[in-house]
Amino acid sequence: MLAIRLQRGGRKAYPVYRVVVQEANRHPLSGKIVVQIGSYNPHTKETVLNKELAEKYLTNGAQPSSRVVLVLKKEGIKLPKWVKEPTKKQVAVKNAEKLRKNRPVEPVVDAPAEEPETPAEKPTEEASTE
């Protein structure tokens, strides 16, 4: 059985992927591929695909990986009905009440502003020296 998958290339910390058709039981990095049908750069989101080859292998039964399904869909390639589209996983948040956004809002209490003392209230130096 054939698989359409991404094969990593590029340098360290800067991956660039080739979209390849290879046997499904081989490891993606083994290098033994049937045909390369395009490339994908995740940094620039640039995709280069040979649409005719992709459609040919899809109609002949090649299984695309979940990431390749998204890339093919973005490029406008019609997928067969049997291809399963990936779904987003719904992750339950543990201890949601501890999240900052779920805490109750504390009212802001303004401290009363201190009024400046009037000169009549201040003891004068003359009165204290007498």
Task: Label this structure with key terms.
18% helix; 5 strands; 3 helices; elongated; S16 Ribosomal Protein, Chain: A; single chain; alpha+beta; five-stranded mixed β-sheet; 130 residues
Please, could you describe this protein's structure?
With 130 residues, this protein is of the alpha+beta class. The protein has a domain at 2-74: S16 Ribosomal Protein, Chain: A, CATH 3.30.1320.10. It has helices at 51-59, 66-74, 125-129; strands at residues 2-11, 14-23, 35-41, 46-49, 63-64. It is elongated and about 105 Å long. The N and C termini lie far apart (110 Å). The model has no long low-confidence stretch (mean pLDDT 85).
Neighbour order of strands in the largest sheet:
4-3-2-1-5
> Which structural class matches the secondary elements?
alpha+beta
State the CATH topology of the domain at 2-74.
S16 Ribosomal Protein, Chain: A
User: How many β-strand stretches?
Assistant: 5
The ordered H/E elements are EEEEHEHH
Shape: elongated
User: Under the CATH scheme, which architecture of the domain at 2-74 would be assigned?
Assistant: 2-Layer Sandwich
Separation, N- and C-terminal Cα atoms? 110 Å
Strand coverage percent: 25-35%
Mean pLDDT score, rounded?
85
Q: Percentage of helical residues?
A: 10-25%
Taking Cα atoms only, what radius of gyration do you get, to the nearest Å? 33 Å
Number of helices, counting only DSSP H or I runs of 4 residues or more: 3
The CATH homology group name of the domain at 2-74 = Ribosomal protein S16
- Low-confidence runs (pLDDT<50, min 5 residues)? none
